[in-house]
Amino acid sequence: MDLLFYKDAYQKSCEAVITFAQNGSIRLDQTIFYPTGGGQPGDSGWIELENGDKILITEARKGESHEDIVLHLEEGPPLPAVGVKVIVHLDWERRYGHMRIHSCLHLLCASVVGDVTGGQISAAKGRLDFNLPDTAIDKIALEDKINQLIEEDHPITMDWISDEELDNNPSMIRTMSVKPPRGSGKIRLVKIGENVDLQPCGGTHVKSTGEIGKIKIGKVENKGKQNRRINLTFAD
Ligand SMILES: [Zn+2]
């Protein structure tokens, strides 16, 4: 399956051929739908059939492998047959919210000293958990720092790198805010600005930090002895 969202996270619709249809779910030969994973929810949207009928796609999920994405459909309408050509459309407003919040969580990660232990993304808010000792977090200073990085409009770029290239660049691993997984062969790196943030990530991001828009830091919660949960939302 061709994963188009890796090439262009801004593609809102595409033509595709049904390659599997069973039990309320389908597979396509290529897709713009990001599957649930890495704290980012799977995309939703709809299928447009040749006769103009629409079938809602409730969630994209990973199938049997990394490149296998299954689209789950609303119950009711008959499934289109294998081999049929359709047009699929993203719920773009929701996905764009995920892209903005997800990109902002990279800025949060880069602005807090401590290892990330978990996170969650929705279209309007997000959060990260940090493994931090019992230290106070200055919410106002953190909010100012992130909003400054947003205002500075740093480009966000993607690159693929092999395990071997990583091994040959130990300094690159040192500068990463999240350590790359080993043994997958190829790792996707997401870079913000020249040295704002660098980390392995398979999610969808905006093109530059300015697109995130102003944010505010919400509650900072204690979740266990060393765990601080930092919440953020859009400011307006
Ligand atoms: Zn990411």
From TrEMBL:
SUPFAM superfamilies: ThrRS/AlaRS common domain, Translation proteins. Residues 1-236 form the Alanyl-transfer RNA synthetases family profile domain. The keyword Transferase does not apply. It holds the Pfam family tRNA-synt_2c. Its main location: cytoplasm. It is found in: Cytoplasm. InterPro entries: Ala-tRNA-synth_IIc_core (IPR018165), Ala-tRNA-synth_IIc_N (IPR018164), Alanyl-tRNA_Editing_Enzymes (IPR051335), Thr/Ala-tRNA-synth_IIc_edit (IPR018163), Transl_B-barrel_sf (IPR009000), tRNA_SAD (IPR012947). It comes from the Bacteria. Keywords: Metal-binding, Zinc. Its cofactor is Zn(2+). This is Alanine--tRNA ligase.
